[in-house]
Amino acid sequence: MENIVEKSRIARILDSDIWHSFTRSPVAIISSIVTLIVIFSAVFAPFIAPNDPFDLVAIDIMDSSLPPAWEVEGDPRFLLGTDDQGRGILSTIMYGARISLFVGFASVIFSMIVGISLGLISGYVGGRTDAIIMRIADIQLSFPAILIALLLDGVARGLVPKEMHNDVTIYVLVFAIGISGWVQYARTVRGSTLVEKNKEYVQAARIIGIRPGTILRRHVLPNVMGPVMVIATIHLAIAIITEATLSFLGVGVPPTTPSLGTLIRIGNEYLFSGEWWITIFPGAALVILVLAVNLLGDWLRDALNPKLR
Amino acid sequence: MELLDIKGLQIEFPSRRGTVVAVKGVNLTVRPGEVLGVVGESGAGKSTIGNAVIGLLDPPGQMSGGEVFLKGEKINDLSYEEKRKIRGRRIGMIFQDPLTSLDPLQTIEQQLVETIELHLKLGKKKSRERAVDLLHQVGIPDPEVRIQNYPHQFSGGMRQRVVIALALCAEPEVIIADEPTTALDVSIQAQILELMRKLCREKQVGMLIITHDMGVIADITDRVAVMFQGNLVEEGTTQKILGNPDHPYTKSLISAVPRADVRLRRFPMVDYIEKEEDRKMLLDISTHWLGQGRDFGKIEGPLISVKDLVMTFVTKPAFLKKNRQSFNAVDSVSFDIKQGEVFGIVGESGSGKSTVARIISGLYKPASGAVFFDGTDLTQLGSEKKMDVFRKQMQMIFQDPFSSLNGRMRVMDIVAEPIRFHKLASSNREVETIVTDLLEHVGLGRQAAVRFPHEFSGGQRQRISIARALATRPRFLICDEPTSALDVSIQAQILNLLKDLQEELGLTMLFISHDLPVIRQMCDRVGVMKMGKLVEVAETEALFTNPQAPYTQELLSLMPKLDKLSHKGLDVETS
Amino acid sequence: MVSFLFKRLMQSVIVMFTVALIAFSMFRFVGDPINNMVGQDTSEQERIELRERLGLNDPFLVQFGRFSLNAIQGDFGVSYKYRVPVSGMIAERMPATLELAFVAAILSLVVGIPLGVYTALKRNSFLSKMIMTTSLIGVSLPTFLTGIMLILFFGVVLRWLPTFGRGDVIELGSWSTGFLTASGLKSLILPSITLALFQLTLIMRLVRAEMLEVLRTDFVKFAKARGLPNRLVNFKHALKNTLVPVITITGLQLGSLIAFAIITESVFQWPGMGLLFIQAIADVDIPIMAAYLVLIAFFFVMINMIVDILYYAVDPRLRADNE
């Protein structure tokens, strides 16, 4: 008997066109490195931040409003300066990025789960179910996502008693941003499902007798994930921006757990008095993060598009 | 003198995995009033020739060698702008798909007038007159009125006529047609080819037709060039190439074309490429798992009986019933299939033949009518579980090898899926053994199990589909155009395989096709469908030698006349 | 054509109805309207009477009907915080938002579409690559950050342009316009650029993607095979086919400008509806929120209808379905 040689998963990935395109594109490599650095420092912030900006004992009001270390009045302890409370900017950025990333990822995952499920069902079952789901989607699409997020946020604010606010707000935010984004996934998945549904391998599965649920899971889902990944990266960027915007406007995360948006808002007050570093650095961090995510998404889209090769 | 002279053409496609040479040193000539056919299977490189001549190769393709002369002038190294002037004016091009060849947002008039004005420098009024005249020449009825229509308002055949008009409107000297009739129905195909030949003769235009279809070659070409894997293997008059070819590849290619004029025992293999393996000795059916559970006793009456089947599709959904428009894809169809026989259904696209297959297999629910399988009405079963019993006995293979397998699953899992679902084996080990045996039995080899579909060719994928279909040990197999998407040579292999399996396993088969010659070779009895209705049912030989229904006679007359083709090497059935 | 219009109209009505329902639910269920309207020392008895008088004890449908009727006439009740009619507050600030959105919309289209076409046609030119890179940054910049930076640079450092407010306005009947004064126009510059930037880059990338798709189609190839010059192929055939699907998305994007104005108005202290809305969220001032919601829905539905009609008029394939 001959040996049946199976190429391991890793070997297949390394040989694939996608990996090849990745290693050839300096942009993709750099942006993934940047994203990884940001994610890393955000996740491990408590361990690697030079100082804990939320430890009320450690903050000294005397340290407030110091410019970055390379300026004349700067202090080497605070590399990027301090804010009006004496908190180190670098540290607040790291913690802030943490919140921003958390909300960003969580809302995208939420959107994906809702969107993909509804899209699969809508596309496969068709008929009235499809019509209803798509009608709801259309109505929701009539509103810009940010408005929906704002509204949900505002309503939740009204519904939840004041004491619970600070704990619940983050989840409300994730929910609001998540709900505002499911439609894109649902539509794309529905479109792909409609296409795959008529493909002969699905019909073959039906003739074998496989039930719809299993068909969706085993056959359709793996084949519709491609475009979903592309949308997810774009959506991640948008989710991060939306959260930052909401926090900037004052209706995002609670002030006790500031995200990058909150930091920018705080710094905005001091912009005209010359303490530029309080806003500019968090702003720069936000832009770099979103840019990196966008670059990755762009590269992914080009790599997955067979027609551009 | 030659109109078009191609010398030593070489076309390459550089890619990161190395350079693919699509065309290697090909010489072709076309004279005025003559039709040259370039025939070959997929991968032969023929399509790129047309694009290269007019300078529109899809990147990264490039013409890496050779010269092209038009009436003695060298044209391959002209600038883009100079080449552009030649396009349309001196060389006209016709592509395969008329639906996508025309700008959907512009009327026919706009597109015609635009091209005529550009090349012939006539005024608007004169251009329009000429456009109407052209439409008339290509056989569009009411050209004055229809010129104002948009492309989507024409049927496929009409659209291709418009495309031909567009290609001719600037009075070119040469026309290159790339698979001009592949997307059209057989009856339309005949008309379009007729039109093209007539125009060619009348205007003394030289035509280069690129195709994989022997029927097209036999119909309108004067000379033929045969291509195989980028090389020109043989060239000569159509008479000679079809009737008495020299080169071994040409010989085997010709012999593999399904004939309508004789019935063969087996399809001859295009053995220039590969020898047919001696499959029969691989498995001893009587002892193998495949052969178990196959003692279908004699049954009373037919195995499958279809009665008054009706299937309706809605074309215009509307809220009120009276506004809803629908049509009957299948209109009161009834027929029987005896156990062990191969029953064919033949018809053009839209005849409803595939719909019938899908109703019988359970994919569609008919509007009315019954499908009896060994006495039980499948349409009245009620529960999925009850249907499962019948699903085991009835399986299907499909037309498109590229979409009939889930690209993300390994072959092992694809073929094992039905075994696992119906719990036909007691352990994983047993499942794996059965699957690898099946793969070997259909001619793929055990290694195939760990691979993914995209690693296989079209013909090999059809074999995987067949293995999957056999995995439940069915007694009834539905074949829906199983070889229509395959090259002629591969088609022969697959059809032979199906024939062998049918004999070995005593399968009852429903064979759907639009290809009359194939039907003749494969089936015992045939039903002819037209627009949802079954117009005639007869024994195959009787149908072909003495058709009763007018439509059947019409269909038979439209078949390309392949009687010029040599009979050498054919294994004729003498019954 | 008529049946098409009718269907669209019915759809729009359904959307408005749903929105009204949501807005109304907000009214009823979020917080107690009575508590928000009266002071601390109003007695329990007075509250009960007030409740009865305002019809808050009536069945849901009756209240909803009343709400809808009022809404159609533009009456959304009284702001919890400011105690003045909401419709008046919104009407006062509407011109500011609409003018801003209008200018931003024109900017996005006039710059976005040509850039999209250029980067599609001249894919590999240096300029294209520069534009694409810049656009990527454009898409990564949150609107508020753009605003802050523009303020910092043009307002604070260079001192060329005003950094907040609308400048001087002139009243034309009930519409206060900033178009007719120098300071009004100057004040418009930074906010409209801020608002337009994100949309602009989106439109540009969309047009580019669509155009690249179209350039790959068979009919473009056939047009070239007929010898048509590139100019004709690109601008007559390709461009037209590109713009058709772009219309829908562009319509939606422009509609969302009105909503995105919220952010710009916050950063520039622009006295429009958006600023009002944000403050209402912080104050949980439900009547204002509800009114804004219904109004925005109305704008969107209108824009969607117009876009659909445009689409119908431009693409002959849609018309033929009804023949």
In a few lines, what is going on in this structure?
The complex is a heterotrimer of chains A (about 300), B (about 575) and C (about 325). Chain A has about 300 residues and is mostly helical.
Descriptive account of the structure:
The complex is a heterotrimer of chains A (309), B (575) and C (323). Chain A has helices at 9-15, 17-24, 26-43, 45-48, 89-125, 127-141, 145-159, 165-197, 200-208, 212-249, 260-268, 277-304. In chain A, α5 (89-125) packs across α11 (260-268), α5 (89-125) packs parallel to α12 and α10 runs antiparallel to α12 (277-304). Chain A has twelve helices and no strands. Chain B is an alpha/beta fold and 575 residues long. Chain B is built from 20 helices and 20 strands. In chain B, β7 (174-178), α8 and β8 (206-211) form a beta-alpha-beta unit. Chain C is 77% helix and 2% strand. Chain C has 13 helices and two strands, in the order αααααααββαααααα. Chain C has helices spanning 2-29, 33-37, 44-53, 60-72, 86-121, 126-140, 143-157, 182-215, 218-225, 230-268, 273-283, 286-314, 316-320, and strands spanning 170-172, 175-177. Chain C has a two-stranded antiparallel sheet. In chain C, α6 (126-140) crosses α8, α8 (182-215) packs across α10 and α11 (273-283) packs across α12 (286-314). The A-C interface holds A 135, 138-139, 141-144, 146-147, 150-151, 153-155, 157-159, 237, 241, 244-245, 248-251, 261, 264, 268, 271-272, 276, 279, 283, 286-287, 290-291, 293-295, 298, 307 and C 11, 14-15, 18, 26, 29-31, 136-137, 139-145, 148-149, 151-152, 156, 216, 252, 255-256, 259-260, 262-263, 266, 277-278, 280-282, 284, 286, 289, 293, 296-297, 300-301, 304.
The main sheet of chain C orders its strands as 1-2
Largest sheet of chain C: 2 strands, antiparallel
**Shape verdict of chain A:** globular
Number of strands of chain C: 2
Tell me the structural class of chain A. mainly alpha
Proportion in β-strands of chain C: under 5%
End-to-end separation of chain C: 9 Å
Query: Biggest interface and its residues per chain?
Result: A-C, 42 and 45 residues
Euclidean distance between termini CA atoms of chain A = 40 Å
Order of helices and strands of chain C: HHHHHHHEEHHHHHH
Regarding quaternary structure, what we see is heterotrimer
Question: Main β-sheet of chain A, in a few words?
Answer: none
The residue-averaged pLDDT of chain A reads 79
**Alpha-beta classification of chain C:** mainly alpha
Percentage of residues in DSSP E strands of chain A: under 5%
The radius of gyration of chain C is 24 Å
Helix content of chain A: over 70%
Low-confidence stretches of chain C: none
Q: What is the string of helix and strand elements of chain A?
A: HHHHHHHHHHHH
**Form type of chain C:** globular
